[in-house]
């Protein structure tokens, strides 16, 4: 016998095993706990994010026909895409044989129908929102975005595998990168378009979901955009921002090469350094009200009140880029 073991979302053992005289002499059987599926070949397994549900796609050994098995039972379906939502409900995509329309169902209930070739379905990490990206036969070859069954104006980049839509952690807000015929890009948040740039990079929601930040590239450099407003300063690189206090505070680094300028910013307070400014060592206090980073041997601390330095200090950099002083600091 051969088996592959793992743990499901509820810490139950999952296994994929084959029994028989030789490796290819018996079909695979998938099981969760003490439940086992019918034997199949060419197995693809998807585990539910909650409980011990699963989807198994394969071919029955007896008939060599494709089979869809859900939670141990063979089910009738013509679906070709399967995506679990965070609560264990299942999105499926099938095509009407007469019209070729894509039909999206959630636990069997139709939630969308259209002349689409579906590229991906993206459920929100919480709540009931979801996104669909695909192409439409009647609208050309460009990829379109559907949010909760509504087609959004504009086109998303036609790059399967690249992230093109984001949800906040609570699922209440969404954002997407759109790419018009000009080849430039812009962000749409909750249906509202923002300014165009040559490219959009490092898009992120704040932990509380209320704020959005990203870098917009232009011929003169990259500009950080927070809550739809372009911030002062230009950067050559586009490091991700750091959020504090759930989203009440935001910090970032700017690196410009012409002229050379290395800066760190936190809620509008700017500290300008040089090539010895270690922008990759940014750390936040536990309450998110302070940001610190290294400038040579000096710790630079930024708060709403301004900037302070801690000099002549030994520092240990621990996991998560936390800055831990191990000898008394002197403030200057």
Structural class by helix and strand composition: mainly beta
Mean pLDDT: 84
Q: Helical amount among residues, as a percent range?
A: under 10%
Largest sheet: 5 strands, antiparallel
- Strands across the major sheet, in which order? 29-30-31-32-35
Low-confidence stretches are 315-332
Bin the strand percentage.
over 45%
The helix count comes to 0
Report the strand count: 35
Question: Cα-atom Rg, whole angstroms?
Answer: 25 Å
Q: For the record, give the distance between the C-alpha atoms at the N and C termini, rounded to a whole number.
A: 69 Å
What coarse outline follows from CA principal-axis ratios? Answer: globular
Give the topology, please.
Elements: E1 2-7, E2 13-18, E3 28-32, E4 35-36, E5 40-47, E6 54-60, E7 66-70, E8 73-75, E9 81-84, E10 90-95, E11 102-106, E12 109-114, E13 116-123, E14 130-136, E15 143-147, E16 150-156, E17 165-167, E18 174-178, E19 185-189, E20 192-197, E21 199-205, E22 212-218, E23 221-226, E24 229-230, E25 242-244, E26 249-257, E27 260-266, E28 269-273, E29 277-284, E30 291-295, E31 298-303, E32 306-311, E33 315-318, E34 322-325, E35 330-331
Antiparallel strand pairs: 1-2, 2-3, 3-4, 5-6, 6-7, 7-8, 9-10, 10-11, 11-12, 13-14, 14-15, 15-16, 17-18, 18-19, 19-20, 21-22, 22-23, 23-24, 25-26, 26-27, 27-28, 29-30, 30-31, 31-32, 32-35, 33-34
């Amino acid at each position: 016998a051969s088996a592959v073991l793992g743990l499901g979302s509820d810490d139950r053992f999952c296994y994929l095993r084959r029994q028989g005289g030789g490796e290819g002499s018996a079909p695979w059987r998938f099981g969760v706990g003490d439940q086992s599926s019918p034997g199949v070949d060419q197995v693809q397994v998807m585990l539910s994010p909650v409980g011990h549900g699963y989807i198994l796609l394969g071919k029955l050994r007896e008939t060599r026909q494709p089979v869809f098995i859900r939670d141990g039972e063979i089910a009738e379906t013509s679906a070709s895409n399967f995506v679990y939502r965070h609560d264990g409900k299942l999105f499926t995509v099938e095509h009407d044989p007469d019209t070729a329309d894509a039909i999206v169902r959630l636990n069997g209930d139709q939630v969308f129908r259209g002349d689409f070739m579906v590229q991906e379905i993206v459920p929100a990490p919480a709540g009931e929102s979801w996104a669909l990206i695909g192409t439409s036969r009647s609208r050309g070859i460009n990829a379109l975005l559907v949010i909760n069954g509504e087609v959004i104006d504009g086109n998303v980049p036609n790059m399967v595998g690249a992230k093109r839509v984001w949800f906040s952690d609570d699922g209440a807000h969404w954002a997407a990168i759109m790419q018009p015929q000009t080849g430039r890009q812009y962000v749409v948040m909750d249906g509202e378009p923002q300014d165009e740039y040559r490219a959009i990079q490092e898009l992120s929601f704040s932990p509380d979901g209320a704020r959005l930040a990203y870098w917009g590239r232009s011929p003169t450099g990259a500009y950080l955009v927070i809550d739809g407003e372009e911030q002062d300063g230009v950067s050559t690189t586009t490091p991700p921002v750091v959020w504090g206090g759930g989203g009440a505070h935001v910090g970032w680094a700017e690196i410009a090469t012409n002229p050379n300028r290395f800066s760190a910013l936190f809620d509008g307070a700017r500290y300008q350094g040089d090539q010895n400014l270690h922008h990759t060592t940014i750390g936040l206090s536990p309450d998110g009200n302070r940001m610190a980073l290294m400038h040579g041997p000096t710790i630079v601390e930024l708060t709403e009140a301004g900037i302070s330095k801690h000099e002549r200090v030994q520092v240990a950099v621990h996991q998560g880029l936390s800055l831990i002083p191990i000898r008394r600091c002197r403030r200057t």
